[in-house]
Amino acid sequence: MSETRQGTVPVLELDDIQGTVLRRRPDDYYGVYLLYRIEDPAATKRSLREVLPKVTSAVDWERPRPFTLNIAFSYQGLARLGLPEDSLASFSEEFRAGMAARKEVLGDLGANDPGNWVPPMGGPDVHIGVMIIARAPEGLREPVDAAGRLAGVSLIYRLDVGVPVTGREHFGFRDGISSPYLVGSADQPLPGQDAVQPGEFLFGYPDESGASPKGPAPDVLSRNGCYLAFRQLRSDVAGFRRYLRDNARSPEDEELLAAKFVGRWRSGAPLALAPDHDDPELGADPMRNNDFRYQEDPRGLRVPRGAHIRRANPRDSLTDTVVETGIHRVLRRGAAYGPLLPEGVLEDDGVERGIIFVFMGASLSRQFEFVQQVWLNGGDFAGLGTEQDPLVANGDGNGVHTIPARPVRRRLTGLPRFVTMRGGEYFFLPGLAALKWLTTLPDPAGDPATTRPSQRPEDDR
What we know:
By secondary structure, the protein is an alpha+beta fold. The chain has a domain at about 75-115 and about 175-440. The chain contains 13 helices and 14 strands. The protein has helices at about 40-50, 75-80, 85-90, 95, 105, 140-150, 220, 235-245, 250-260, 280-285, 310, 365-375, 430-440; strands at about 1-5, 5-10, 30-40, 65-75, 130-135, 155-160, 180, 195, 225-235, 330-335, 355-360, 400-405, 410-415, 420-430. The longest helix is centred in the C-terminal third of the chain and has 13 residues, at about 365-375. It is globular. It starts with a strand and ends in a 23-residue tail after the last helix. The model is unreliable at about 1-5 and about 455-460 (pLDDT under 50). InterPro entries: Dimeric_a/b-barrel, DyP_N, Dyp_peroxidase. This is Dyp-type peroxidase. Keywords: Iron, Metal-binding, Oxidoreductase, Peroxidase. Belongs to the DyP-type peroxidase family.
């Protein structure tokens, strides 16, 4: 520990933390997400020991390495590896239940229901998740080959990702600008970046309360680990374009409406700093594009209170309420998949495209699920009643988005679903020492149980 004027700063064990927790992917990237089913636990553990040297730590991330590789396990996967029952029971209820069982909390209903997900997601066969990112296509060969050497497993899903030629996600917005700064990490915070205690995201460190959150047992398993939520989200780019065209007064107004949906112009320039016109230079400047607050805009005249980025991170909007935003922050990683829909095309071509959303943190319920349920799928916290996030909520064609203005507000109605859930799962991302420890577990006797707990955790209340 060291001392600063803000108090005690924990020293993070960077060489034991899987790198994706602390380090963002490069702006130019190519990658692949792999899902495996464990067939032979003993063979899997032997081969995992061979793959361990390829797993990227937070230290390795900064070295001149052509790729990063990180590994996570579902509840089912940990059970298959032979984790003892008392250890399995020490994981959080939502992790043990799995993402599909939490559909009511997450709002994964209708078209987003797990019954409509791409197999094998939502089922019992997703045991191991491997995330690989490289700066160039040729950088993928070594880590994909290493993952391919995993024995005792079946590859059941592969999704290739990569930065679109525009450098933006499929709706056209610059992505990945805002993220909390973990106190004690090697990076320096950027202007406007909130400093959050590392225990909010990693087990073994103090959180915003000053205490260390309780992780799964034993300590060797939880230390430097965290929960991870993986979601594949399809983007209806044609539908988004049509809605803007049909509800805008001019091409310039289309861009303004898009910005009012998100809270930023497509360039990344925040409405809080550029309320009337886009400013691409501002959007591209990391020293300025996230340095703003909402307290001077309580009515949402600049950034609507229901805009996506104001919902996902209300910043100082809730200062005078009982909600402590610091304990609900989301550490997000992700990537785009699928080809771009050509510019100007207003009809869907049937091709899969969208984003992979990856959340990491110490609490699935208090962080990811809270943000999803209360801030994205609800409106009460912002005085908006039943209004939902205009871009990513589970819309049914009756959505509403209010844009405050003088003299008369603007209300967009009939919002369809622009983003559809294609599948996901909850994982645990262990530290490197924990990964090695998992490979030493005794093999379970007989055929280990691979089913969820007999009751959903919320039914036990």
